[in-house]
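User: I'm writing a short methods note and want a consistent example. For Phenylalanine--tRNA ligase alpha subunit, I'll paste the sequence; you return only the C-alpha cells, no commentary, since I'll be parsing the reply automatically.
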Amino acid sequence: MREQLDLLKEEALNRVKNVQSEKELQDIRVAYLGKKGPITEVLRGMGKLSAEERPVIGALANVVRDEIKDAINQKSVLLEQKALEDQLGMETIDVTLPGRPVPIGTTHPLSAVVGEIEEIFLGLGFSIAEGPEIETDYYNFEALNLPKDHPARDMQDSFYITEELLLRTQTSPVQARTMEKHQGKGPVKVIVPGKVFRRDDDDATHSHQFMQTEGLYVDKDVRMSDLKGVLESFAKQFFGKERNIRLRPSFFPFTEPSVEIDVSCGICSGNGCRVCKQSGWIEVLGAGMVHPRVLEMSGFDPKEYSGFAFGMGVERLAMLKYDIDDIRQFYTNDLRFLNQFKTL
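Assistant:
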C-alpha cells in the first residue's frame, strides 16, 4: 500500500505539472482528492492492515494528500497569473491618447449675477448680511412700517406657516434685524441677497420664488444724492459705462420719499424701441430714504440719523443683462439653457 501511495503521488504531481487550464486542474483535484478518488480508497482499505501498519499508512496517506493539494493550489496561482499576463498582452493601451472629457458644471446665471452685484457693492464699502427665510410677522411687516391692514399682508400675497410665521416676502427684514444689532449707533452699510417667496402665479415674468438683493445705508447726514450716486455707480458697472439712470417718484411704506430707478435702454441707447416700450428707459429697482418710523422702531433716532434703502430683483437684472425673456428658464434645470453661460 505504501508503494501504491507513492505511485499515486508521482502520477498526480506529473499531471498537475503538465496541466494547461484551470478546468483540467479542477478535474485533477476531483480525480485524486474527491470522495471517490484513489487516496480515499486506500484509506477505506486500511481495515485490512495490521495494527502496526495502520498509523504508518494513515500518516503517509495524509502527507500524499497534502502534497497533491499544495501542488494543485500553487498551479492554480500560476495559471491565474498566466491568464492575466496573456490578457494584458492582448490588450494594448496607448498612453499618448487624450483622455475622455469629463463634463463639468457651469455657474448658474443667477449665482453669477449675485456674485457680480456683491462684488460691486463690496467695492462701494458695503458688507453682506444674511437672515432667516422663515420670518416673523413683526420683522417682515411691522418693523418695516406695514400695519396690520396693509394689502401686502393679505394671504394671497404671503405664504403663512402660522399666524406669526411666514416665508419672507422680501429681504428687508434682514435690514431691520441688522439695525437692531447696531443698537442705534451707525454707520450701517449692508446689502442683503437672498430668496423670497410670494403667492403668485408663475408665468414669463412672475415666480412664487425669486431672489432679491436689498441695500441699506444708515448714518448721520445721509442724503438722496448719496442714494443716486451709489445706484448710478452700480448701474454703470453692472450694465455698462454708457448707461444712465433716472429717478421717478413712487411710494413704499418703508421709505419716504420713495423712487423707482430706471436705467437707459441698452438696445436703443435711450431713443426708444420695442424692449423699452419706446420710452428709452427700463425700470430696474425701487429705492428711497428710510422712513423715520422704521429707523425709530429699529432703535435709531431719526433726528440724528438718516439713511437710504433699495431693492432689486436678481432675476430681472439677469433677464435684462443676458436678454432672457422667460423667468422660468432659471428654474427648469434645462442644460441647453444653462450651457449658454459656461463663460460666466
